[in-house]
Each structure stands twice: as C-alpha cells, then as structure tokens.
C-alpha cells in the first residue's frame, strides 16, 4: 500500500524546502488536495507519489525555461483564462513579437453583409 508522505519528506525528495512547497501551493502549482482539515482547522499537507511526480515536472519546467514559480503560475493562468490569453496576445502583437491571426474569409463575408445591411 502506497503511503502519503509529509511536506518535510516531500521537500527532501524534491530537493527543495517545505516553505517553497507552500509558496508553490499558494500560486496554484501543486495538485489540489482533498484532505479534510485536522486539529484546529489546519491541514497538514501530505504528498502521494503522483503529487511528487507532478511537482517534479513543474520544477523541471522552471529549470528548463529559467522561469520563476510565479512566471509558471502566470503562464498557466494565461492558458486557463481566455480573457487573460487575449490580453497577453494583444500585447505581444503590439510589441511585434506575435503576428495577428490571419483574417478568415468568413469574417470578411460577415463584415461585407453587415455593411450591405447598413450596420457596422
């Protein structure tokens, strides 16, 4: 039977600190836990092998792309929130780092039809 390990042991296995794991958790970079609170409403986070593999994958992304945990958390937010993605894309286009998506023929036809109807 696989046993979950406490945060201190998880930090040792991941070559980081419990404080950094808590920081990553506050950024949304740790798998969601379904553990009920213990004691006076506090919960003591425990890590499964799957949790350790997931956190390890995030740490590898940070090292490979030389980004901070906050940058990785923002990247995930951009991918998850269409409005954030649109604003970042628009900024990238203004900087000239991203090219605007090509106009689609259907969009052109729709605009033409609206003009013919006298609407903008």
UniProtKB/TrEMBL annotation:
UniProt cross-references to SUPFAM superfamilies, sorted A to Z: Putative DNA-binding domain
Gene Ontology terms: biological process: regulation of DNA-templated transcription
Alphabetized InterPro entries for the sequence: DNA-bd_dom_put_sf (IPR009061)
GO terms of molecular function: DNA binding
Start and end residues of each stretch annotated as Disordered: 28-47
UniProt protein name: MerR family transcriptional regulator
Species whose genome carries this gene: Marinitenerispora sediminis
